[in-house]
Amino acid sequence: MSAKEIQTLWYTRCPVPTPLGIASQLGWINQEFASDGIEIKTLQEVSDPALRESHYDHHLPNSFRQGGNVPALWARAQGADTRVIGLNWVDESQLIITLPESGIRTPRALKGRRLALPLHGNTIDHGRAGALRGFVTALQLGGLSADEAEFVDVAVDLPPSGWTANGKPRPGGSYATLVTALLEGRVDAIYVKGARGVETAALLGAHVVTDLKNHPDPVVRANNGAPRPITVDAGLLRDRPDLVVRFLSRVVQAGDWAARHPNETVAYVAQETGSSEAWVRQAYGDDLHRRQNTDLAESSIYALESYKNFLVQWGFLKQDFNVRAWIDPVPLAQVFKSGERRVA
Predict the structure, then answer these.
(1) Half-sphere exposure at residue 2, Cβ-oriented, CA atoms within 13 angstroms
(2) Which of 19, 209, 224, 304 could join 130 via S-S bond, C-beta 3.0 to 4.6 A?
């Protein structure tokens, strides 16, 4: 039986540090398939909302995605036929911040306070899920339960897709609305993350109650941003596993390239996130270039499983499913076995 002919491959990524983002900026995805006559398209370059929705629900055939894990988990729980073929873990700043005059200095002091939960209009509110996880974790670190604080909905003006219609990182993100709620006294604390988060905290002159990035337990640090799965349309994996392995090999190579190019990696991530290199370094650490590797480490799988359980518990996922059964380790094993991780 001849291999199924594929005319187009799609991929999408979030405006965050990912090896797929680096591979894309290096032009490696297009280069890999240039001689095959396969057109490479990315959702960041289209304006059709029906197409862009695949960033969340993964409905496009012959497509790959890497980014926050909440949409990937949600799509799978909704029945999307996808498989995880790799994971990447980049710890990012996860800040609970308050105004200095609030007197809130520690997680314990969040007791009885009003904590902002952003409310977006997108298909799956990953920004809200991330903020809730951050607050619940901070409360637990302070010896408190979730019902010992008040969660306040804050409608956010912009959807947290992260990308504008012309494929550029969305400037400022959605934190401006949360900051306004904080300054107006409608809430006592907000959750911000990543390069835009540390920039927001600095410009506001806020007090950092805690940065969950610094916790030694990866399960505690797990959130929408860690680990970030690479998912693929399962039909493509069944019909053309060779294309999946070739695509994945380029992502793996990007991690190896990054390890050798620390300054260039920071510059690429700054472009991806729409932030300055200084904020990128502060948010993601001096070892960012060594954190672009792709694997299926047991610690990452366990953390993803734990976070999935959190999302089920809090109603973000309406159906439970087996995370481990969702993972197909074969493509990554083939990449490593074939030596295709060599930097081109």
Answers:
(1) 3
(2) 224
